[in-house]
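Form 7-S
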Amino acid sequence: MIWSFSFSQQYTNISTKDGLPSNHVYTIVQDAKGFIWFLTDKGMVRYNGKVLKNFTTKQGLPNNDVWDAFTTPDGKIWYMSKSTHLGYIENDSVFSFPNENEEEVINPIFSTQIDNKVYLSGPKTSHHLKDNVWRRFANPKTSINKIKNYTRVYNSKVRYLNVDFNSSTLNLYDEALHVLAQYSAKDIMYQNASRGQISDSLFYLISDKNYTFLNLNTLELKSFTHKGEVGIERLKHPRINLVGNQIQISGDSFVAKLDKDFHVIEPIFFPSELNAHFGFIDRQNTVWLSTFTNGVYKLPFVKQNIAYKFTNEKVQNLNIVNRKLIASVYNKGFFVYNDLDETFNPYLNSKDYIFGALSINSLNTNYYLSWSSLIAEKNGKREIFSFDVSIFDSLEVNSFIKKLTYFESHIYGIYSFGIYKLEPKTLNIKKDLVLRGCNDLLVFNSRLILATNNGLKELKKDAIKTIRFKNEKFNKSVLSIVPISESEILINTDGFGSYISDLKTINPLVNSEFLIVQNAYVKDESIWLATNSGVLHFLKKDNNYELIRTYNVNDGLPNDNINSVYVTTKDLIVGANNGLAILPIHQARKDLLIDVLINSATYNAEAITKDQSSYNYKSSNVVNFKFESIDFSDANFKNKDYQYKLEPLQSNWVKTSVNTVNFNNLQPGNYVFNIRDKSVTKTINFRIKAMWWQTFWFKTLIVFLGVFLVALISVIYVKRSQFKKNQKIFDDKRLSELQLKALRSQMNPHFVFNSLAAIQYYINENDFEASEMYLVKFSKLVRQFFELSKENEISLRAETTLLKNYLEIEKLRFKEKLNFQINIDNSLDIQNTTIPTMILQPIIENAINHGIFNKIDEGEVVVNFKSENNHTIIVEIIDDGVGFVNTKKRQNENIKSSHVLKDRLHYLNNSRKWKISYSEEEIYPNRDEKGNKSIFIIQKL
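Output:
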């Protein structure tokens, strides 16, 4: 397969305007890291795809006229020049070594590189580097004068090679100058030929007519002519290069790789207008060309499989006419595509603005539309309809027609101000329908659909109607419409992407949003959009279209702003404002990013390397990293930003547009610096060692002492706080007990007063028997009360006995008007269950004196003791008296015992021994005599 490119515009030019020191470029090489080097008459240039870095005498070169270089696997770039000093560049530093004969200029035109060693060879001398000096190889034991035009060979078997132009022989000698082999050199070598050794076993000779390879181990000689390999009679500036493990051949018209048998494979021919004299194929198969006048040209591999046509011409439309693809080219005319040789041949010439071509099958006629005329082609005959803008009020068309279609026996055409309805044969105007901003028209399911700047319209009986959709209002500017099935159309808009519609509803084509879609091509289940962002390919899956690929300039398109698109079985054909491209549909993308390099890393100006990566901590330290990418991708495919992070200080990637990063005042620890560009990440590790006062053990000791001091202070503080707290509790408890005793002393006379009042009542009634019985019971009750008043709590048995005695005394006083009940839950242990003394009796007393006493008929008091749980009992005191509300109406004075109870409960709860709640409620809220229920919930803590 032979690739030939006719259009130099697809090459990217790099020249002095971009930073080259000169447009006179001898040759191009690629070093072990991936950098491209340009060798010029004004110095050497290293290129990473973005930045050109120049090396001249200012940086240490012995002179600026460097015409060749060798790149060794260890990363050195050995420069070749006529000089007394030669050497290499490594890590951007120039190293130069002198010739042992300081007066002798080395002319290394036949130099050799074998692995990491470089030998400088000229017409008569050879040098090798030893102890940083270029030393001449010793002459052979036998006089070398017997051999003229010899070249030293670096092989265990062959030591010298000689071309005898007088006898036209090629001779091989060993170290002792014994002849090893002799070959006829006729038609192999000429005076201006080049020769060299490219490995320990392979030697080459190349001239303008042929090239030859000699196996130094087998002594086998193979010779080839340029004409036989690539059809070139004479090749100017012939060169043989070893690039990696691949041999390349180049000259002024092509560059190619050689197969294992030294035959040319896949030659790449240069456009003659570039005037290139040397070609180089890098490790990513990008082609680089050097010139003596215009610097360097680059052609990425992705563009090497693409055919470019109509360079710098506007290709407006690609239309199918009678199964043939027609390209409409501005100011050129119409061209028909030949898919056999991928060429476009002239069909109709026209120095005019070209709109496009179409075929109306119903009329068996093809139409070719331009600004000033319309050409109708039928049965091989053409009729030209010219537009005369000076004709008015005529049936003839006087304006350009940019789109045509056939509908209901008439031709409809779009012009500047609307739509013409034309008679098919004469193209006379039948009707002029005014509609500004009409861009396309389509006959779809017996309907004429119009694409306008204000949505879709429809032509019905020569009237223009707006098409309205059920699901949304659509008034976007439509550039074109294309059928995609029998029921759906594709609507392409100006800046809002594409939509799919059945003319009832309309839905956006997902992933085409906000694109300018000029046109589209539909094939089978695929949609291809021609947009301002390249070509988008959608594929139908599960009744939905999914975006599967985008083609842009990185894939070889001449421009991202595409006017039209067409697809064959294997190729994608696109038309743009600067030409047309034919590229394989399934062409794989290739990222031309080679590597990301950390050029330098320093800690306080000390280099960070793999061997030296540990440093003592210093305050106000500065850590600096410089990095760069080697990326030969087109500008649109390169990352504008790097991403970096310093672990563990940073966990997320940080973007930067510069190639240097500083970190200040880093604390002791282990660090990892990461730098990333696209899929390539590089790291470098370093450690900042702590000072003695920053060590872990010192910090641990400080922490331990701190914890100990905090604990000691805490213990002292807690003890003091607890002492104060206990003292306060003791004081509060003592106060509560004193208050409780005082309250009990208040309760005793109150009860005595009521009891004596009852005895006085009987005496006044002259009922001495009753008064005697009452007095006996009262005396027993008083004695029992005084005995219990010394206690803070009382058993439930004692409490019920006390209450029973009290109620019996009250019953005697009230005679038969008072009844009472005391009910005790069987689950209660009345012997061991205790409650505070004298909290129930005042409530029972209130129930009798203020409830039952004011009642006309008999009353009853019920006392219930219920068990809540092991530590909680519920006491209910129920009376059916007049109720608390009625009692307040009759006497407004406060009931002293109730206030006393409230105070007692407050102090009991504060004693932290008891939790007692008290509540009251009416039994019969709707009656006059409402009754009352008092409830105690007593919990012993």
